[in-house]
Amino acid sequence: MEFGLSSEQTLLQDTVNRFLDEQAPLATVRQIAAAEIDDGAIWKGLVELGIPALLIPEHMGGVGLGSLDAAIVAESLGYHATPAPFLGTAVMAPLAFIQSGQQEALLGAMAQGDYRVGIAFGEAIGARNDAGTQFSSGKLTGKAIFALDAAADGYLVATREKHLYFVEATAKGFSRRLLTTVDKTRTTVELVFDGVVAELVSQDPGVFNQVLDAGRVMQAADTLGAAQYALDQAVDYAKQRKQFERVIGSFQAVKHMCAEMAASLEPCRSLVWYAGHALDHMPDESRVTACHAKAHLAEVGRFVAKTATEVHGGMGFTDLVGLHYWFKRIGANRQLLGSPELVREEAARLQGMVA
Amino acid sequence: MEFGLSSEQTLLQDTVNRFLDEQAPLATVRQIAAAEIDDGAIWKGLVELGIPALLIPEHMGGVGLGSLDAAIVAESLGYHATPAPFLGTAVMAPLAFIQSGQQEALLGAMAQGDYRVGIAFGEAIGARNDAGTQFSSGKLTGKAIFALDAAADGYLVATREKHLYFVEATAKGFSRRLLTTVDKTRTTVELVFDGVVAELVSQDPGVFNQVLDAGRVMQAADTLGAAQYALDQAVDYAKQRKQFERVIGSFQAVKHMCAEMAASLEPCRSLVWYAGHALDHMPDESRVTACHAKAHLAEVGRFVAKTATEVHGGMGFTDLVGLHYWFKRIGANRQLLGSPELVREEAARLQGMVA
Amino acid sequence: MDLSYGSEYSDFREEVRGFIAAHQEKSPSQASMRGAEGLAWQKLLLDNGYHSRTVPKAYGGFGAEPDILKSRIISEEFSAAQLSTGLGGQGISMLTPVLLEMGTEGQKLQFIKPTIMGEMIWCQGYSEPGAGSDLASLTTKAELDGGDWVINGQKIWTSTAQLADWIFCLVRTEPDAPKHQGISFLLFSMDTPGIEIRPLVDMTGDANFNEVFFTDVRVPKDQIVGRRGQGWQVANAILGHERGSLAPPDAAENRLKGIIKLMETETIDGHRVMDSPVFRDRLMKLQGQVLAMRCNDMRLLSARINKGQDARLAGMIVKLQGTELRHELEGFAIDVLGEIGLAYEDNPYLRGNGSWQYQYMYFLGLIIGGGTSQIQKNIIGERGLDLPREPKVAKA
Amino acid sequence: MDLSYGSEYSDFREEVRGFIAAHQEKSPSQASMRGAEGLAWQKLLLDNGYHSRTVPKAYGGFGAEPDILKSRIISEEFSAAQLSTGLGGQGISMLTPVLLEMGTEGQKLQFIKPTIMGEMIWCQGYSEPGAGSDLASLTTKAELDGGDWVINGQKIWTSTAQLADWIFCLVRTEPDAPKHQGISFLLFSMDTPGIEIRPLVDMTGDANFNEVFFTDVRVPKDQIVGRRGQGWQVANAILGHERGSLAPPDAAENRLKGIIKLMETETIDGHRVMDSPVFRDRLMKLQGQVLAMRCNDMRLLSARINKGQDARLAGMIVKLQGTELRHELEGFAIDVLGEIGLAYEDNPYLRGNGSWQYQYMYFLGLIIGGGTSQIQKNIIGERGLDLPREPKVAKA
Hints:
heterotetramer, AcylCoA_DH/oxidase_NM_dom_sf (chains A, B), flavoprotein (chains A, B), oxidoreductase (chains A, B), flavin adenine dinucleotide binding (chains A, B), acyl-CoA dehydrogenase activity (chains A, B)
């Protein structure tokens, strides 16, 4: 019995962390957030580490690791607020293609960093206002909003019926525009489909669900990492910053804020591990567990993001310490792929609690 | 412009407080809670102060004061965790009789402390399980649970249609039994009606609503008083209790617990005053305001009851300091006449927000 | 309990309404407050006693007796008509009251009129990187050299520093005195050589504040308010003015109305958000809290009019509760909007001009600024509930 | 990640199941645990290594090597079969490990066997009215008089004092030493003259605890564990045992299941509470928290098996989070029940035997007891996050 990371997983995490510490420091995040550079160099490095190949079976040219491994990477990316197309290109799209047996040819290109796939699932989770897509006669029409990755080469699009389609960004009738959000470490876009040729990936809602669950667990892991960073920064700051001739961390008020963050965040680590493990090994539990990981981390993340900022005092509010990149990333993870209320209702429905 | 208590109101509150300080101290509350004595003596004293005559117009032999005055008294009763049939006999029943023009003959007896009226509204607010009453051919059948006042001489009973009936406790086919709750400072009963002769008080849901609103504001005021007591006790304890060679109130953790209680409770005082005032003077707002007072005080009360107990450390958990009477009273106020979720939904419905 | 302002105020309300009817087309937009149009409007308000009403005529004001209800009526009527109530800013809201109370006659004559006319814009030099919650530990020093103070050091959180003509500034003049007794309150022009301003970008993306650096800044000796070493008392008089005004409940009420509108118009899978009982319940919880703060505010207003009414504690909790509530309200709106709640800047799906996200962050800043929530709780505990102060720490 | 216990444990699980199948009818009810039936069951468990498994045979145990998974399998299987896992209490859970670690050979031989057999019941003399969070300031004193300690003072929060045969007790033996170094750990019979027990009724209405008064209680000099003045270290070893066991997540999971059942059966105006989205959302929030604590517990179990896995912080937060969560769960059940949630004692509408209200209060007691939430946060902050301790206060 071992509830935790294997030595291989620890090594993987260390490797990713070391790479990000060196190649994606705050200064680089700032540049990408300001659109001075794109996330290409970071992604290239992650590709070299094999990250987009992680979930692709070995016989398809991948590394053949599991969802927990991916969650560990997601945590590291969150910890570093790393701009990268990980969620779509390394997790959700590969899973969809593998599960459905479609577009397998793309997997190799994705694994090698030559092809990025964005995700347009919002309309299948809870369509906002007039957004939504319809498929007929081989073509997709409509609009998807807050789709992931502005630089994707193609998009995996879910309709309200939870059917999945694949669309190339170069296709006729396809257009997109950047939807700026508070979180500049990732990009979202509006996709407009004016009778765009689309290839069916899956009409099985089970595939959609599996891909969505994985995405949600990755987001939970990303929030875990981002919140852990915020907590670490707050603790460090509390140990250094002096007011009233004492380091502020010696004041019970500040100490307890840190303790409350740790107390609520620490069990989240285990929850994320479990949810990651469940995706591959516990089909009966994995859906509910993914919902809980997503929703619970959204709530704890919001609390930690706020509290860590407060511990930093005015500095936390400034751009100087850069903590806001994490604050906003946590905020984005909360809303994308289903806000907590919606996800909790789904957890209840999955347990037969909704009449 | 004066948002606050008039000098007459301050005098009324002082008078009630002085009486309760002297005649209803914790030792007496304990005796009543243990059923060693009943609340008769306290009620007699309150009758002498004119409390049950408060809302009865002067031409009917009462004092002719308003709902805010009653709320002030309710606050004092909550502050002292006073066992007394105030809510039914001094507020809800008189209001029902006055508004409907029924049973006016009883008002005099009630004002003089010779007649107590209990309240069975639960089934009109949100009927639990199989409880509920039906009226036909002049008779009431069914069951009401958690009706207020085990020692009442008669009961004001609301059906699901929000019709009000009056039943004498001596009537044929009527039976009741005590329903013990955590809160021993008030009593609740199960009423069984086996074809009991009942007199119609009102078929106008408007009357029911008005009586209910008043009851809810009184409960909010009661919680305000009880929570203020809990806070006062906690602050006193924090000033005296020493640990680590310091009074615990000098520790930021304890100080901030007290500050958080005060910060959430202090605006409640104004809210209760406003809600009391609105009952008589602001018909457009009074219903929503009563709902908010009831629900908000329920939440703040729960927080204060828990936190004040924690400030007392182990002592708070014991019977020695008696704080638990207030803890439980606040808990009872939360659930009776509509739990917060239910009351908030009503507030939304009143504002046309529920489709 | 009397929520009306009484018949004696009806005339005044009519007078205000008359003014509004006659002049409302002259009210400037927010953007042009400092332009010619704005300054003309400001003058009109001053001449009619709708701004700086109680400031003596000698200093450019209207010279009226203080009357809180009249002030409230003015703000109610202007707000109802959606008119500008004139210029604000730290010179008007903070410095002017201080000069009236502690300035010399010369200072009053020199500074108040141009300040309230909008001709002299001020910024505040207060906090320092090393002096936040512990403001009294500030180290920017001013040393006398002949007839001048020579100032060296750094300030932070200085809003409107780029716009400001002058600064009111706390500096350490008696380095050997106990920390609260070694501070002085100086006034000087922002054109004085040796001042450098660096905008301080914050999490909203804007630079709502600045850092200001002083290198051998020379200020005439008499540009001091109060005596040498008395600056802390002067500063505290100002802080009192600031704390009350950070989170007025009418703003929270307007935001709540905005959220209700959002919930009625935004849909998820074709259903209005308002039709979600879970969101409705959260809305009602917040509405209850906003109502409680509104009632608390009415009590505070009343206590200022009716001597003898005690609302000390009710006043002390406003900053803490008001800023936390606003942050929560804005965060709730983001939840109502879901993904759309993330929209910012040029996003075409922006709702309310992006104000939900902006205010969500800005109010986190206000939770921290002007005395953090932790400092507020100390104040409530110590001054409000009379709990003992933190004991002195033993020397290591 | 491997959630199975591995094939090497299947045999052991089978063995436990075999025992259960053969003997389950002998398992006593909770009430008769201290009766003949209970003691016989206890002996059966001891003989088969299902209780005090790792206690050496010489002291009445089974003498097995520590194996956390085997212990877990025993508890899982007994729990699944709803059988008693035998006697608990402070003598077994707290004193026995301490004696094993710090007792003399004579003490081990004298006390452990009768304790685990259930023949010797212990209570704990620890907290005092003046020594709660600051336990080390305890003042119950023991002075040597010839061959005896003479004890005077008062203890509080002594559960099972009426039942107890013996007490393990912290007393001050070196009044002039620093407070942590002047305490000794004594053992003595509750029949010793000079002991008075007063039940301490708590908010649940029960007397879950007692006050114990000592007046010239004479205790033989050698009834001490560890050396004179070493009692604080002994006590801390025990506290560690206590903190981990206050809020196991399986109890929370069972309560959550109970709430789900309540929500499916209780109705409001004919609608199941489960059909209220607002209650459902609160349920899901709590389910998420309970799941997180379950996962945290699996991690802790794993870290005890797999050396090198760091779960220190995960362990430190259990008491704080676990007790707060249980209190919240019980409070939620009361809300689900509405008025019926108020039912207590002989109320015919009681649900779950009144346990919702009882546990709601009891867990508030547990939030306070065994190190208040405030003390827990200090510990998490200082030991878990390495934040500095509260500085020493200057002498007034």
